[in-house]
Amino acid sequence: MKLFPYDNPNKNWLPYDGIVNYHGVIFSNPDHYFKILRETIAWRHDEAVIFGKHIYTKRMVAWYGDKPFEYTYSGIQKVALPWTDSLLELKTIVEKQASETFNSCLLNLYNDGSEGMAWHSDGEKDLKKNGAIASLTFGAERKFSFKHKESKEKIDLLLEHGSLLMMKDTTQTYWQHRLPPTKKTQQARINLTFRTIEL
Length: 199
Known about the structure:
Blueprint: E1 19-25, H1 30-40, E2 44-50, E3 53-65, E4 70-73, E5 76-79, E6 81-82, H2 85-98, E7 104-110, E8 117-120, E9 133-139, E10 142-148, E11 154-159, E12 163-168, H3 171-174, E13 175-179, E14 189-195
Parallel strand pairs: 3-6
Antiparallel strand pairs: 1-12, 2-3, 3-7, 4-5, 7-14, 8-13, 9-12, 9-14, 10-11, 10-13
Protein backbone atom coordinates (compact mmCIF):
# COMPACT_ATOMS: atom_id res chain seq x y z
CA MET A 1 0.00 0.00 0.00
CA LYS A 2 1.60 3.28 -1.12
CA LEU A 3 1.03 6.54 0.71
CA PHE A 4 2.11 9.92 -0.61
CA PRO A 5 0.18 13.13 0.33
CA TYR A 6 1.97 14.15 3.53
CA ASP A 7 0.08 17.30 4.44
CA ASN A 8 -1.43 16.44 7.84
CA PRO A 9 0.95 15.83 10.79
CA ASN A 10 -1.95 14.52 12.89
CA LYS A 11 -2.96 11.82 10.41
CA ASN A 12 -2.37 8.27 11.63
CA TRP A 13 -0.79 6.32 8.77
CA LEU A 14 -1.40 2.96 10.47
CA PRO A 15 -4.88 1.43 10.01
CA TYR A 16 -4.89 -0.13 13.51
CA ASP A 17 -2.76 -1.23 16.49
CA GLY A 18 -0.53 1.83 16.68
CA ILE A 19 0.05 5.44 15.74
CA VAL A 20 2.46 6.80 13.12
CA ASN A 21 2.43 10.52 12.33
CA TYR A 22 4.48 12.05 9.52
CA HIS A 23 5.19 15.75 9.98
CA GLY A 24 6.97 16.13 6.66
CA VAL A 25 9.92 18.50 6.29
CA ILE A 26 10.30 20.62 9.44
CA PHE A 27 13.65 22.30 8.67
CA SER A 28 14.33 25.15 6.28
CA ASN A 29 18.07 24.33 6.27
CA PRO A 30 18.44 20.52 6.42
CA ASP A 31 21.74 20.59 4.50
CA HIS A 32 23.27 22.48 7.44
CA TYR A 33 22.39 19.73 9.92
CA PHE A 34 23.42 16.94 7.57
CA LYS A 35 26.90 18.44 7.27
CA ILE A 36 27.30 19.04 11.00
CA LEU A 37 26.11 15.53 11.92
CA ARG A 38 28.34 13.88 9.32
CA GLU A 39 31.38 15.74 10.65
CA THR A 40 30.86 15.89 14.42
CA ILE A 41 29.15 12.65 15.48
CA ALA A 42 31.37 9.85 16.84
CA TRP A 43 30.37 7.37 14.14
CA ARG A 44 31.32 3.69 14.51
CA HIS A 45 30.48 0.65 12.41
CA ASP A 46 27.51 -1.12 13.92
CA GLU A 47 28.06 -4.51 15.52
CA ALA A 48 25.79 -7.50 16.01
CA VAL A 49 25.97 -11.07 17.26
CA ILE A 50 24.16 -13.32 14.76
CA PHE A 51 24.05 -17.07 15.37
CA GLY A 52 26.92 -16.64 17.81
CA LYS A 53 29.11 -14.80 15.30
CA HIS A 54 30.29 -11.21 15.93
CA ILE A 55 29.88 -9.13 12.77
CA TYR A 56 30.41 -5.49 11.74
CA THR A 57 28.11 -3.71 9.30
CA LYS A 58 28.88 -1.02 6.72
CA ARG A 59 26.18 1.09 8.36
CA MET A 60 27.54 3.36 11.07
CA VAL A 61 25.90 4.23 14.38
CA ALA A 62 26.23 6.45 17.44
CA TRP A 63 24.38 6.59 20.77
CA TYR A 64 23.91 9.75 22.89
CA GLY A 65 21.91 10.59 26.00
CA ASP A 66 21.30 12.52 29.20
CA LYS A 67 23.38 9.94 31.09
CA PRO A 68 25.75 7.12 30.09
CA PHE A 69 22.78 4.83 29.54
CA GLU A 70 23.57 1.22 28.68
CA TYR A 71 21.54 0.03 25.71
CA THR A 72 21.60 -3.50 24.33
CA TYR A 73 20.36 -4.69 20.93
CA SER A 74 21.50 -7.44 18.56
CA GLY A 75 23.52 -8.84 21.46
CA ILE A 76 25.77 -5.76 21.69
CA GLN A 77 25.81 -3.29 24.58
CA LYS A 78 26.34 0.40 23.92
CA VAL A 79 26.98 3.23 26.40
CA ALA A 80 25.55 6.65 25.60
CA LEU A 81 27.90 9.56 24.94
CA PRO A 82 27.14 13.08 26.25
CA TRP A 83 25.00 15.26 23.97
CA THR A 84 26.70 17.48 21.39
CA ASP A 85 25.45 21.04 20.95
CA SER A 86 23.86 20.20 17.59
CA LEU A 87 22.05 17.14 19.00
CA LEU A 88 20.67 19.18 21.89
CA GLU A 89 19.45 21.79 19.41
CA LEU A 90 17.74 19.12 17.32
CA LYS A 91 16.29 17.47 20.43
CA THR A 92 14.70 20.77 21.50
CA ILE A 93 13.19 21.30 18.04
CA VAL A 94 11.79 17.76 17.91
CA GLU A 95 10.35 17.89 21.43
CA LYS A 96 8.55 21.13 20.64
CA GLN A 97 7.23 19.82 17.32
CA ALA A 98 6.10 16.48 18.77
CA SER A 99 4.97 17.61 22.24
CA GLU A 100 7.10 14.82 23.73
CA THR A 101 10.32 14.57 25.75
CA PHE A 102 13.28 12.29 25.14
CA ASN A 103 16.46 11.39 27.02
CA SER A 104 18.52 9.64 24.35
CA CYS A 105 19.17 9.36 20.63
CA LEU A 106 20.36 6.51 18.42
CA LEU A 107 21.86 7.71 15.13
CA ASN A 108 22.39 5.71 11.93
CA LEU A 109 24.51 6.68 8.93
CA TYR A 110 23.66 4.86 5.70
CA ASN A 111 26.46 5.62 3.24
CA ASP A 112 24.32 4.93 0.16
CA GLY A 113 21.15 3.18 -0.99
CA SER A 114 22.72 -0.28 -0.75
CA GLU A 115 22.65 -0.02 3.05
CA GLY A 116 19.39 -0.54 4.90
CA MET A 117 17.78 -2.11 7.94
CA ALA A 118 15.91 -5.43 8.10
CA TRP A 119 12.44 -5.89 9.62
CA HIS A 120 12.47 -5.21 13.38
CA SER A 121 10.65 -3.49 16.24
CA ASP A 122 12.20 -1.10 18.73
CA GLY A 123 11.01 -3.14 21.69
CA GLU A 124 14.18 -3.48 23.75
CA LYS A 125 13.56 -3.86 27.49
CA ASP A 126 15.47 -0.63 28.23
CA LEU A 127 12.97 1.48 26.28
CA LYS A 128 9.89 3.04 27.82
CA LYS A 129 7.00 0.71 26.94
CA ASN A 130 4.70 2.30 24.35
CA GLY A 131 6.89 5.41 24.50
CA ALA A 132 7.12 7.75 21.52
CA ILE A 133 10.06 7.49 19.12
CA ALA A 134 10.87 10.51 16.96
CA SER A 135 12.75 9.80 13.73
CA LEU A 136 14.55 12.56 11.82
CA THR A 137 15.88 12.08 8.28
CA PHE A 138 18.71 14.10 6.75
CA GLY A 139 20.18 13.37 3.34
CA ALA A 140 18.85 10.86 0.82
CA GLU A 141 15.10 10.46 0.51
CA ARG A 142 14.28 6.83 1.30
CA LYS A 143 11.27 4.53 1.50
CA PHE A 144 10.37 3.38 5.02
CA SER A 145 8.08 0.38 5.46
CA PHE A 146 5.81 -0.98 8.19
CA LYS A 147 4.48 -4.55 8.42
CA HIS A 148 1.86 -5.78 10.89
CA LYS A 149 3.18 -8.77 12.84
CA GLU A 150 -0.05 -10.78 12.50
CA SER A 151 -1.97 -9.57 9.43
CA LYS A 152 1.25 -8.88 7.44
CA GLU A 153 -0.36 -5.72 6.02
CA LYS A 154 2.29 -3.32 4.74
CA ILE A 155 2.47 0.48 4.70
CA ASP A 156 5.17 2.46 2.84
CA LEU A 157 6.17 6.07 3.50
CA LEU A 158 8.72 8.22 1.70
CA LEU A 159 10.93 10.00 4.24
CA GLU A 160 12.21 13.32 2.95
CA HIS A 161 15.39 15.29 3.68
CA GLY A 162 14.75 17.25 6.89
CA SER A 163 11.58 15.36 7.85
CA LEU A 164 10.13 14.08 11.13
CA LEU A 165 8.32 10.76 11.64
CA MET A 166 6.66 9.84 14.96
CA MET A 167 5.96 6.26 16.11
CA LYS A 168 3.72 6.10 19.18
CA ASP A 169 1.44 4.03 21.39
CA THR A 170 1.48 0.27 20.59
CA THR A 171 3.27 0.60 17.23
CA GLN A 172 6.35 -1.35 18.40
CA THR A 173 4.18 -4.10 19.88
CA TYR A 174 2.18 -4.85 16.74
CA TRP A 175 4.27 -3.55 13.84
CA GLN A 176 7.74 -4.07 12.46
CA HIS A 177 9.55 -1.52 10.32
CA ARG A 178 12.48 -1.52 7.94
CA LEU A 179 14.55 0.65 5.60
CA PRO A 180 14.77 -1.40 2.39
CA PRO A 181 17.92 -1.13 0.26
CA THR A 182 17.51 0.71 -3.04
CA LYS A 183 19.49 1.26 -6.24
CA LYS A 184 17.75 4.59 -6.80
CA THR A 185 20.21 6.64 -4.74
CA GLN A 186 23.94 6.75 -4.12
CA GLN A 187 23.52 9.52 -1.56
CA ALA A 188 24.05 9.11 2.18
CA ARG A 189 21.22 9.29 4.73
CA ILE A 190 21.49 10.16 8.42
CA ASN A 191 18.69 9.03 10.70
CA LEU A 192 18.22 10.16 14.30
CA THR A 193 15.78 8.30 16.54
CA PHE A 194 15.04 10.16 19.75
CA ARG A 195 13.72 7.83 22.42
CA THR A 196 13.21 7.40 26.15
CA ILE A 197 15.24 4.98 28.26
CA GLU A 198 13.50 3.91 31.46
CA LEU A 199 15.43 5.20 34.48
